[in-house]
Design brief:
7-stranded mixed sheet; alpha/beta; globular
């Protein structure tokens, strides 16, 4: 269900007349097209604000329900992403991430691939936090089934609770698998995940970043771009992909 189009701009509102205006419009449209030989772009988005985020009470109910601000964040994110198409969309299996990205998938008639490795991790303050039984089965509600599919070969359960180092290992696996599948290409992918997992993924891809240096806001986008096998942060906690995405300026 992936669309071959990417980075489709919102149509301009002003009407142009004359050959000068037509020439300017033609030139400007060239910058909106993907250029040959461009490198991989990754947009990482944290799920919208849940009751658990707001109250710090991490019950199953609070993890699955959004605050009023969270509901508004989903609307804003969907509106910001609507003009764009991605070569791949990856998501954590957590209900809050699925529900954050689903309205965009519906609007774009796209499908996301569920990666259990993108579920939340590394929240423990004690690296020796004991293991508990595996996580819950990954189940989709009826209205979600057209828009999500489990990655072929992936585990059919969420990771569940685990040691800090176990979480780091699966994030590193996810980073390596993203590079294996899309590294060095001109693909543009979207990753829907969590506060800690998203930060660790960014730190893993952009290796020069210190641990703990990335703080992701709810339903905001962080843009990474690859250059010669290395990733750079183009923008952190963005409201929308913005002009930098299709133009693809040189990394900082």
């Amino acid at each position: 269900m992936w669309s071959a189009r990417r980075w489709v701009r919102v149509p301009r509102r002003h009407a142009f007349r004359g050959w000068r205006a037509a020439l300017l419009l033609t030139i400007s449209s060239l910058f909106a097209l993907p250029l040959a030989g461009q490198a991989l772009d990754i947009f990482i988005v944290r799920h919208a604000e849940t009751l658990a985020n707001a109250t710090k009470l991490y019950t199953a109910f609070n993890q699955r329900h959004f605050t009023r601000d969270g509901a508004r964040q989903i609307e804003d994110l969907t509106r910001a992403l609507r003009p764009y198409r991605f070569d791949a969309i990856l998501t954590s299996p957590a209900y809050r991430t699925l529900r954050t990205i689903q309205p965009y998938l519906v609007a774009a008639n796209a499908q996301a691939e569920i990666w259990p490795e993108l579920d939340e991790c590394c929240w423990q303050t004690d690296p020796e936090h004991e293991l508990t039984p595996p996580g819950d089965p990954i189940l989709l509600e009826e209205d979600q089934r057209p828009y999500f599919a489990l990655r072929p070969g992936a585990a059919e359960t969420s990771p569940g609770a685990e040691r800090y180092d176990d979480g780091i290992r699966r994030v590193r696996w996810a980073a390596a698998e993203i590079w294996r599948r899309w590294g060095g290409s001109d693909a543009v992918i979207l990753v829907a995940t969590h506060y800690h997992t998203g930060a660790k993924l960014i730190e893993t891809l952009a290796e020069s970043l210190p641990s703990g240096g990335v703080r992701l806001q709810n339903a905001k986008l962080t843009h990474l771009r690859e250059s010669d096998g290395r990733f750079f942060i183009v923008g952190l906690n963005l409201d929308e992909p913005g002009a930098a995405a299709p133009i693809r300026a040189s990394p900082p």
